[in-house]
Structures are given as structure tokens and as C-alpha cells.
């Protein structure tokens, strides 16, 4: 998130101190598969749908811009995501989501069990699937690399230090104190993911907590086309010859560790989804921490209690999906762009 924001701020010529979680401490993207999937869970009660759709489509232009500027292909592909149902009750719920999205003009379809078998004969039994043909994925590691490279190309300076405290004079921020030094700044953007609430000197208790996600990768079968299949308990995503599978949601504090129990839980769910992977050999496992808020929505915008402090944090499971657009929105906010959409639903003072 910090890389995306730093790049966008550099594009508009704003000098802002961006605090992100980097190195071994941060990298919430490690818990991300990189799915761009605003539609697979959305219904009438989801306030993130419209933002997610804009964020997904924003990557089409952004991917081209990054490839041209720094030569990094972020592996964007939008060939659709299927959310499968395992029971009749799950199917009923997904059909309701499909109908709601169709009524609101979104490209979304229901696939009967026979349609699912025809498209993905390697899947286990299903009772149908929600099909979002414009959803897709990108490679989160390549996205971060490209954003950082482009930010540096635009003049951003990367400082390898751990921010520990906000500095202020009255109700105005003046900078940040780190372990290795102090940094004067009239404007500070807090984009430190799951670590955001640990910063001293915040004007309020920031309700962002870490939630661990464990993942694994198996060989993707060479005889089947790439695909992304999602179930409420797991997902399966093809990338660079691997089957990326995940993920857990664990309240364990700041422990981005892989555990036997977590990996077993993922495998149990994925093997029911795709029995053909049963004998596949695990190539690698990893874990990361997601920054979650109580209502599951991000915190984007200014801090009303401290002039010069801004937020871009708490994106939870939607961090990669929303990263590119969040950077652009933060740039609009700081530049007082009259075309900035209403972001009140994501304001920090809603808590």
C-alpha cells in the first residue's frame, strides 16, 4: 500500500512522508494471492463492491503504465473467477448474489453443475458456481516491485528505518521519529498495514489488527488450462506453473508463521475442491499478516484530530485489489481534487 501511495504522490509532485511496513516486519502482500475479485462475495450489503470494481478496472491502465515505465509485467490477467457451491444451500445464496448483481448491471452469471463440469472437469462435485468473467488476478510480488521501482524513478527516497513515533506541535504534525533517525514532514501518510496501530503518538486508538493468512503452492497440472476457483473455505489459483492455494484467517497477533495445523486445514479444503491435487508435492509454504478493521473496510483519508496526518490502511483481505486505486485516491485527496469520490464510508472517525 505504501509503494502504491508513494508512486501516486510522486506523480503529482507532492512531498509526503509515507510510512509503510517493509522488510521482515511488514509485507502484508505475502498473505495475498493477488486475486482481483470484487464480485465473488458481493451482494446488496457490501459497501466495498463499487470501490472494488473501480480498483479492479484501474489495473488495466496501471499495468500498462508500469510495464512502459520500469519494464515490469505485473502478470495481470482477467479471465474470470468461479465461486463454486458445495451444497444446495450454498447454491441458493450464490444465485441470489448473481441475480442482485445482474439487476445492478454487473457482468455476473450462474453456472449449473453441468456447466461447471464442462469447463473444469478436474474439479470435485459442485452444485453450481457464480461466474464473474471480468475478475482475475495479478502477481502481488511483481506489483510491489514495479511500484517501488517506479516511485524511485519519480524521485522517491526509500529510507530503511522503523518509524516508532509521530512528532507534533499542538494539533499539527511535524514529522516522525524512527529507530535510526528523525524525519521532518508537514504531511505524513500512515500505510503500515497490520503494524499501523503500533505507532506511538497517534491521536486515537487505531482499530487495525493483524490476521494471519497461511498459503502453499503445488505444481499446476500441465494438461489443464489456468484458472481461478474459489470456495468459501479455500481457493485455487494458477500462476507461473504453480497452483497457489489458501488461505487461513487466524487471530494470532504478530506471528507470520506457517504451522502444520494451518497447512493441513488449507489442504483439506482444497483437496475437496480439486481431488486431482491429492498426490501433488508441496513446493513451498508461506504466511503473512492482513490489516483488519472491525467492519472489514479500509481506513482512507485525513485524520481530523491532527493536521497533516493521513491514512491508507486496514485493507484486510482486499489489500492487493485496492492498492492501486487507493494510491490514486490518496493523491486526489492531498491534491484537493474536486473529482475525488466521496470516501466518508472509509473515514477513520467512523469508529
Helix and strand topology:
Elements lengths: L1 H10 L5 E4 L14 E2 L12 H22 L10 E4 L3 H16 L5 E3 L1 H7 L9 E4 L3 E2 L2 H14 L9 E7 L2 E7 L3 E3 L3 E4 L17 E11 L8 E4 L2 E6 L2 E5 L13 H14 L10 E9 L6 E4 L6 E5 L5 H16 L17
Parallel strand pairs: 1-10, 3-12, 10-17
Antiparallel strand pairs: 2-6, 3-5, 4-5, 7-8, 8-9, 11-14, 11-15, 12-13, 13-14, 16-17
Helix pairs in contact: 1-5, 1-7, 2-5, 2-7
Overview of the structural elements:
There is one protein chain. The chain has 351 residues and is α+β, with helices and mostly antiparallel strands. The protein folds into 2 domains: 2-30 and 142-206 and 294-350, FAD/NAD(P)-binding domain; 79-134 and 209-292, 2-Layer Sandwich (D-Amino Acid Oxidase, Chain A, domain 2). Helix content is 28%, strand content 24%. The protein has helices at residues 2-11, 49-70, 88-103, 113-119, 140-153, 260-273, 319-334, and strands at 17-20, 35-36, 81-84, 109-111, 129-132, 136-137, 163-169, 172-178, 182-184, 188-191, 209-219, 228-231, 234-239, 242-246, 284-292, 299-302, 309-313. The chain has an 8-stranded mixed sheet with strand order 4-5-3-12-13-14-11-15. Strands 1-10-17-16 form a 4-stranded mixed sheet, covered by helices on one side. Strands 7-8-9 form a 3-stranded antiparallel sheet, with no helix packed on it. Strand 12 and strand 13 (234-239) form a beta hairpin. Helix 2 (49-70) packs across helix 5 (140-153) and helix 2 (49-70) packs across helix 7. The protein is globular, with a radius of gyration of 21 Å. The chain starts with a helix and ends in a 17-residue tail after the last helix.
Amino acid at each position: 500500500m505504501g509503494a502504491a501511495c508513494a508512486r501516486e504522490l510522486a506523480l503529482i509532485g507532492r512531498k509526503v512522508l509515507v510510512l509503510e511496513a517493509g522488510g521482515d516486519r511488514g509485507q502484508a502482500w505475502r498473505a495475498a494471492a493477488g486475486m482481483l475479485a470484487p464480485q465473488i462475495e458481493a451482494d446488496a450489503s457490501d459497501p466495498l463492491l463499487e470501490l472494488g470494481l473501480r480498483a479492479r478496472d484501474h489495473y488495466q491502465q496501471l499495468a500498462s503504465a508500469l510495464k512502459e515505465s520500469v519494464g515490469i509485467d505485473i502478470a495481470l490477467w482477467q479471465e474470470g473467477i468461479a465461486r463454486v457451491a458445495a451444497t444446495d444451500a450454498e447454491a441458493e445464496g450464490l444465485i441470489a448474489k448473481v441475480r442482485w448483481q445482474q439487476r445492478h448491471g454487473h457482468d455476473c452469471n450462474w453456472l449449473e453443475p453441468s456447466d461447471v463440469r464442462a469447463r473444469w472437469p478436474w474439479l470435485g462435485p459442485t452444485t453450481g458456481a457464480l461466474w464473474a468473467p471480468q475478475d482475475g488476478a495479478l502477481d502481488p510480488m511483481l506489483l510491489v516491485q514495479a511500484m517501488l521501482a517506479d516511485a524511485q524513478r519519480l524521485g522517491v527516497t526509500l529510507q530503511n528505518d522503523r518509524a516508532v513515533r509521530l512528532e507534533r506541535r499542538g494539533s499539527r504534525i511535524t514529522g516522525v521519529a524512527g529507530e535510526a533517525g528523525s524525519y521532518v514532514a508537514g504531511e505524513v501518510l500512515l500505510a503500515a498495514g497490520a503494524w499501523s496501530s503500533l505507532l506511538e503518538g497517534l491521536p486515537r486508538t487505531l482499530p487495525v489488527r493483524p490476521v494471519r493468512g497461511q498459503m502453499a503452492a503445488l505444481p499446476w497440472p500441465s494438461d489443464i488450462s489456468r484458472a481461478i476457483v474459489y470456495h468459501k473455505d479455500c481457493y485455487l489459483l494458477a500462476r507461473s506453473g504453480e497452483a497457489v492455494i489458501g488461505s487461513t484467517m487466524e487471530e494470532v497477533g504478530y506471528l507470520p508463521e506457517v504451522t502444520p495445523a494451518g497447512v493441513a486445514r488449507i489442504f483439506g479444503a482444497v483437496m475437496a475442491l480439486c481431488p486431482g491435487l491429492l498426490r501433488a508435492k508441496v513446493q513451498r509454504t508461506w504466511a503473512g499478516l492482513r490489516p483488519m478493521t472491525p467492519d472489514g473496510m479500509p481506513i482512507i483519508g485525513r485524520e481530523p484530530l491532527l493536521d497533516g496526518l493521513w491514512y491508507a490502511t486496514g485493507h484486510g483481505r482486499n489489500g492487493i485489489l485496492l492498492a492501486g486505486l487507493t494510491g490514486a485516491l490518496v493523491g486526489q485527496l492531498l491534491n484537493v481534487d474536486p473529482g475525488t469520490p466521496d470516501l466518508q464510508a472509509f473515514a477513520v472517525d467512523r469508529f
